[in-house]
Every structure is written in structure tokens, then in C-alpha cells.
Amino acid sequence: MSHLGQLQTRLGCSFQNEDLLRLALTHPSLAHESGEPTPHNQRLEFLGDAVLQLVLTEKLFALFPAFDEGQLSKSRAKLVNGETLAGLGRALGLGQYLILSRGEEGNGGRDRSSTLADAFEAVLGALFLDGGLDVVRDFILREFAPALGDLDTLPGIENPKGELQELLQSRSNSAPEYLVVSATGPDHDRVFECTVQHGGIELARGTGRSKKAAESDAALAALKKLREAATASS
User: Fold this and answer.
1) Which uninterrupted H or E stretch holds 215?
2) Is residue 105 very low, low, confident or very high in pLDDT (cuts 50, 70, 90)?
3) Which of 44, 159, 166, 179 has the highest CB neighbour number within 10 Å of its CB?
4) What are the Cα distances from residue 208, in Å, to 94, 101, 204?
5) Co-location of 31 and 77 in the same domain
6) Of the candidates 100, 115, 150, which is a domain's last residue?
7) Which residues are catalytic?
8) Among 203, 127, 129, which Cα is nearest to 168's?
9) Which one, of 18, 15, 139, lies nearest residue 88 by Cα?
10) Is the pLDDT of residue 189 over 90?
11) pTM, 2 dp
12) Number of structural domains, the chain?
């Protein structure tokens, strides 16, 4: 099996035009070192980035119908970052297939995170041009399945109380109300239980080592329930 054939097996995709895959693996250093116009992967990286954003945006839009554009953007940002893309590139073994200049090779370019992340996006661009959107979508969703599974509880929620308030106030003018219903345990190890209500209806309960933590936990639980309800009705 050829060098590129081995990579295609790892990718789980067969290229009709292997030159596209070869271009996706060609580092810009090759052109810089030769001093001559040499095609490299930066244009494919640009295309692959756009395709990746589209596919993940479409998936998140379907997964989280209760969330607004700000929350969806946070979710996407948690998925699409250099560290994640480099990790995916390493898992596929892209480093050993990169076409590098001698200088870049000597400087450890095969394991450089930025290089691997760029190559991963370039491969996405090549897959899109070679097989179309359906092919690259299937590949992206397969590669991102673990990360998407981790998001399945709630995407990118750093401030549950603030986000719950935004969500509820988009539906009515009243804000959520929090009420501590119990505090148990010794003074040095208290556990608080809190409810969050909206319009006189209890949305959820939460617990925590402080009143603030219990309120955040209740807000998070309420957000989950609202998302599940929106998903069930969609």
C-alpha cells in the first residue's frame, strides 16, 4: 500500500484525486526554503476551516434548540480550537505524512501543534473538494463524536445563572428567583439546597457547599430541563 494509501485507510476515506491529499499535507516551509512558487496547504486550510465551522454549527443548532446564538457560539468555540485540532491530527498520525522542508523537519515540525492543526483543517478542505459536503460532514462528525458527546449535557455554560436569566427574560419580563430550602451538616462542611422558580413555578433544585454554588447548580439543572423540553417538542 502506498504512503498516501495508508493515510486514507486511517482517515476512513478514499480520495479520487490523491493530489489534493498530497497538497493538504504540504507545509508552507517547502516554498519558503526553495524560494520558488510551490503549492502548499494554506488555501486548503482556509477552506477546511470554513467547512468545519459550517458542519459543527449545523450539528450544534440541531442538538441544542433551546440555546441562542451566543450560547451556540461558545459551544462551537470549545470544539474548534488549536489544541483540539492538533490532538485530532496526532490521533490520525498526520505528522508522519507531512511534506516539510529540511529546516522545518529539523525543528520538530512533524509534532508541532500549530502545524498539525493546520494540516487537519487542510485535509478537511481536500475532502470537501474531492468528495463533497456529505463526505466531509461524515468524517467531521465521526472525529468530533467524543467531544460532541461531552457537550451533550450542556454546551459551554460558564455562568448558569446569567444564561438562565437571559433565556427566561427572552420569554417574559420576570427574572428567576432563588430560594435556599435547607442547609445541612456542620458549620465547616455545610451543604445547601436551593430551588429556582420562575413565575411561581419551580424549575429545578440544586445543591452546593455555599448558597452561590447551590444557586448555580439549580440554574444548571433548570437549563438542562428547558433544553430537554425544547428538544422533545421540536
Assistant:
1) helix 211-233
2) confident
3) 44
4) 44, 55, 14
5) yes
6) 150
7) 49, 121
8) 203
9) 139
10) no
11) 0.70
12) 2
